[in-house]
Design brief:
The complex is a heterodimer of chains A (124) and B (193). Chain A has helices at residues 35-49, 68-86, 102-114, and strands spanning 4-6, 14-18, 23-30, 56-66, 90-97, 119-123. By secondary structure, chain A is α/β, with parallel strands linked by helices. Chain A has one domain (4-97): Transcription Regulator spoIIAA. In chain A, strands 1-2-3-4-5-6 form a six-stranded mixed beta sheet, with helices on one face. Chain A is globular. The model of chain A has no long low-confidence stretch (mean pLDDT 95). Chain B has 193 residues and is α+β, with helices and mostly antiparallel strands. Chain B has a domain at 8-114 and 169-191: Heat Shock Protein 90 (2-Layer Sandwich). Helix content of chain B is 47%, strand content 23%. In chain B, α6 runs antiparallel to α7. Classes of the chains: A alpha/beta (124), B alpha+beta (193). At the A-B interface, α2 and α3 of A face α2, α3, α6 and α7 of B.
Amino acid sequence: MRNLIIEPTSKTPKIILNADVNVFEISGRSIPEDSVGFYRKVIDWIDDYSKNPNPKTNFKFQLEYFNTSSSKCLLDVFRRLEKMYKSGNQVEITWCYDADDEDMKETGEDYKALLEVPFELVSI
Amino acid sequence: MIFNTNDKNYHISGPLQFSYPCFIDMLSNNLIFMYRGIVTSDLVTHVLQIMEERLEEDKASKKTSKKVFNVMVECLRNVYFDEISEEKSEFEATAILIVKSEEDGYLVSTGNYLKNTEVDALKNRLDKINQMDGEKLKVYYQELLASPVAEKGLSSLGMIDIARKSKQKIAYQFQTVNEFFTFFTLEAKVIKK
């Protein structure tokens, strides 16, 4: 399948979804004008990937800041991963946050509370 | 025009008369950023870029800067004008953003005109959020995050975010301007760390 690589901009995060090397990462800031449109590409990619996923998928998130419409979209992304996990795949989410960024840690905890998929918070 | 241009407070006459009073006003109040105009998605990006430098000049810690950014993004969301989906006059779309550096924190303030008919619902949302403590805000945030919400819910989510990240009550004011419009001011404070 084709990989999804999107370079970061001042409004949108960097996306690396590379099944060949088993790297799945979303990092940077996320305040797009059209969050739903932006994350649609990610969700479509996951939908496609989940038809034939790698033996192990670790999805890494390392966000600087994001707006509330992005926070909804992120939950949609997590829900897709949760679905993959529930259908018997080995899926893990890693939520990285700056050691001194308690807000980003708290946001990670919010997501973790809402999801039934291995969700690890990592301070960096 | 809804304000009275005969009022001397609104009227600066003659050439070369604006800069100095405005400068003194901003300086004496420690206003590190001020913008009046339509708030679009691009504008938010530009404001953040400028604020990054302003906060650095003001020697804000990385931690504080991040919080100010987060709060600002959500405050601006409230006065944000979506050209595609919203039908607003230029008058309603125009907003003000002020960032003030105080000894113990940064005050982020936005203001814009609303229709009088929009006031009650907004006031109720703000009051509901202001009555909640940290734990209740967390539960409410998670609840709204997980529910399929429309625009109103997204706006509440943004306000909860402001309250949680600033760890303060959201200060607000509604000033009735005339029979159609009210000026809405929202203020959030980020304590310096």
